[in-house]
Structure prediction request, 93 residues.
Amino acid sequence: MTPQYPNLEFDEDPDAIIRPKTASENLSAYPARGVICFFQDVITNLLEAGKLRGIGQSRSEMGIHRVYEMTGYSQPLTILHPVYRSTLGSISS
Prediction:
């Protein structure tokens, strides 16, 4: 398909560098419900108490950003610090 006004940056390759579908394919690894915890000390305390299990991570110039699962309630929960979502874009594992 040739657009009337071509985007000079258009990439027909389905395996482009930025591919949102790839991130959404990984969502099955995460519980459907989650909590964004703004307090890293709370996450650290839960981790030290053995209440969290690591289920994913992403790396950036700011370091490693982990995603956890918390069980023991009616449904498992995804737990993460907001720096992971607010500045880094889509979920990766």
